[in-house]
Amino acid sequence: MVVVFAGVFFALLGLVYFSSGFSSAARAYVQGEGTWSKAQKEATIRLQEYAASRDEKDYQAFLDCLSVQLGDRIAREELEKPQPNYTAIYAGFQQGKIAEADIPGMITLFRNLRKTKEIAAAVSAIARSDRGKIGEQTGGRRFNAPDRRDRREADSSGKRFFDRAVCGRAAWNDC
């Protein structure tokens, strides 16, 4: 009888250990999403400031904000590979401002639950958003173009650029 209770006790203890690890990793992903969203908003603001001021510090701040999202993208793309480079994953998550202590749990969660419906939907949405980051970078470079013609094009298409690439919405007022 004691053996049965001891077996149940240790089974429950193991379940608590694994569930707390997954819970911590899920919390880290939620926290990472918040950091990602703040960086996206900050990048939009910095690019708008740069478009108005042409101050190189504003452009550099824009690129710094984008580095958070690009770091997360590097980590996600590496995690998708059958044989991922864990050094690149760690570097990507660190660039994305993820706490180093959270990275192993995030890797485990992603690798073990990637095929579930909920995780697959979230990763698909993130991948679509990552494609928009390429447009955001390109638009930022156009604003920073040394050629006057490129700058005029950037100025004339600025509203469309912010609508589609930065805001990810159809209307400027939605930003």
Describe this structure in words.
By secondary structure, the protein is mostly helical. It has one domain. Helix content is 82%, strand content 0%. It is built from 7 helices and no strands. It has helices at residues 2-53, 56-80, 86-95, 103-113, 117-143, 148-156, 158-166. The N and C termini lie far apart (64 Å).
Secondary-structure map:
Elements: H1 2-53, H2 56-80, H3 86-95, H4 103-113, H5 117-143, H6 148-156, H7 158-166
Structure annotation, total helices: 7
Task: Label the overall shape.
Answer: elongated
Topology pattern, helix = H, strand = E: HHHHHHH
Give the averaged pLDDT, no decimals. 76
Tally of distinct domains: 1
Which stretches of 5+ consecutive residues score pLDDT under 50? 147-175
Total beta strands: 0
User: What summary fits the major beta sheet?
Assistant: none
Give the percentage of residues in beta strands.
under 5%
Helix content: over 70%
The first-to-last residue Cα distance is 64 Å
- Computed over alpha carbons, the radius of gyration is 21 Å
Structural class: mainly alpha
Short overview:
With 175 residues, the chain is an all-alpha fold.
